[in-house]
């Protein structure tokens, strides 16, 4: 996970997971709409998950 991805996930969580798939974007977008903190946490979890890292 790069430094810029972390910064992007703090300000625009759905854009940080843009290349991780449509489902990830939708989940993070819905959580961000519900509240900023859940969206940031979800984005960071998805970015840290080794299953999604290629």
Automatic annotation (TrEMBL):
Keyword Membrane included in the entry's annotation: yes
A cellular-component GO term for this protein: membrane
Subcellular localization, as worded in the UniProt entry: Membrane
Keywords of this entry: Membrane, Transmembrane, Transmembrane helix
Superkingdom of the source species: Bacteria
Principal subcellular localization: membrane
Membrane-spanning ranges: 28-47
InterPro entries: PMP3 (IPR000612)
Family per record: Belongs to the UPF0057 (PMP3) family.
Name of the molecule in the record: Uncharacterized membrane protein YqaE, homolog of Blt101, UPF0057 family
Species the sequence originates in: Myroides guanonis
Upper taxonomic lineage: Bacteria, Pseudomonadati, Bacteroidota, Flavobacteriia, Flavobacteriales
